[in-house]
Design goal:
The chain has 391 residues and is α+β, with helices and mostly antiparallel strands. 29% of the residues lie in helices and 30% in strands. The longest helix has 25 residues.
Length: 391
């Protein structure tokens, strides 16, 4: 049937000549797609009130002298006191919408893929497996600075979705598949089926003295038409200065990349001079160490190192002194929502829409209503649904 034929064409490997034609087209189109960083933009990373810290990392600058995190603490203390006086529970206090941006976390996830149309298309073009592997690493590194945002996104509701496209034709699909623990599933389909990025992430965070350490846990896979699959992990996030000191955001820990078909691996350590990232920042005042946004690692083929990896996720990425990515070189790509979307589409949320329209009071009311509805739904699933973990 026609549908079966179309499905087969999407999954069958492309012929060498046809693949070459597609790549030639992509080489031309990439030049038309990328836009140089405008000289008029004087920000360090493209965001207002974010600068590089003295010892590395993204430093958030509060205009009114009070960081958003400390605003939250003040709100929580006030709300707890009010609830206690009224005899209400203090467990489910709703955070103030003033600390949120009018986007869902599903939308925020696309920030990390802002250069997929450039670097994943370059990876798909590469004929040499090692070169392709390098471009895949450049893709991941290029999106790390995009996580430096002061305001937090709205937590996704179970079943919430987001659909969009990039200018090169890449299709983006996301869905919140679990509420407790929070798990987001995603799939990006590159133009002409030349690559696919897919996986899911479970988000975990734990408090530390004066900060939070968290991360995205789950598989991240980049699949190419010739059968190559590159799997990678994400580094951990550290936010310090939540109570005292500079409010900093930086990446820590170790990431790995694996291409089993071609026996290529890479391991990259962020803030390599530190055994513990939170402690490292405190001790950096008294010791000579590389900035906390520095990283280094090595790329191996058949178990043997073939080139070192080093750089700074707020500056550049180098393989054997050759630069593969540099900040402020190109503008990030912005996803465009589909015209027809599901009722569960993130931008249709009442709290998000109200905040986008500037109605803070209505946004706060709708946010609380949705949170209470989600808790009630979870209770019903627990009582009457399948007996299994998650959701």
């Amino acid at each position: 049937s026609k549908k079966k034929a179309e499905a087969a064409s999407r999954t069958a490997p492309l012929s060498t000549s046809f693949l070459g034609d597609i790549m030639s087209e992509k080489k031309v189109s990439l030049k038309k797609l990328v836009k140089p960083w405008p000289e008029s933009d004087k920000t360090e990373f493209g965001f207002e009130d974010v600068v590089r810290g003295q010892y590395g990392g993204c430093k958030f600058v509060a205009k009114d002298g009070l960081s958003l995190n400390r605003t939250v603490i003040t709100h929580l203390v006030s709300s707890m006191g009010k609830n206690i006086m009224e005899g209400k529970s203090i467990i489910n206090i709703s955070l103030p919408v003033t600390i949120f941006e009018p986007r869902s976390f599903l939308q925020r996830m696309t920030d990390h893929w802002a250069f997929a149309p450039l670097y994943l298309n370059k990876a798909a073009m590469a004929k040499d497996p090692v070169e392709r592997f390098k471009w895949a690493i450049a893709f991941m590194i290029s999106g790390l600075h995009n996580g430096c945002r002061q305001k937090k996104p709205f937590n996704p509701i179970l079943g919430e979705t987001f659909q969009a496209t990039y200018p090169d034709g890449t299709e983006i699909f996301l869905e919140q598949v679990s509420h407790h623990p929070p798990v987001s599933q995603y799939e990006l389909l590159g133009p002409n089926g030349t690559w696919k990025l897919c996986g899911f992430n479970e988000y975990r965070a734990s408090f530390r003295p004066n900060g939070v350490v968290g991360g995205q846990y789950g598989p991240n896979k980049i699949e190419f038409q010739d059968g190559t699959v590159i799997e990678y992990t994400m580094p951990q996030v550290t936010v310090s200065g939540m109570v005292i000191g500079d409010w900093l955001f930086y990446w820590t820990g170790t990431t790995t990349f694996v291409d089993r078909k071609n026996n290529i691996t890479a391991e990259i350590t962020f803030d390599p001079d530190a055994a513990n990232s939170v402690i490292s920042y405190a001790t950096s005042f008294f010791s000579a160490k590389s900035p906390c946004d520095y990283f280094k690692g090595s790329l191996k083929k058949d178990g043997k190192e073939i080139c070192p990896i080093e750089g700074c996720w707020l500056a550049k990425l180098k393989f054997q002194e050759k630069v593969y990515w540099r900040i402020r070189q190109y503008l990030p790509f912005t996803p465009t929502e589909l015209e027809k979307t599901l009722p569960s589409h993130a931008t249709k949320r009442e709290d998000l829409v109200a905040l986008l329209q500037g109605n803070v009071e209505l946004s706060q009311t709708e946010k609380k209503r949705l949170e209470e509805k989600q808790r009630a739904d979870r209770k019903l699933r627990k009582e009457h649904g399948p007996k299994k973990d998650g959701h």
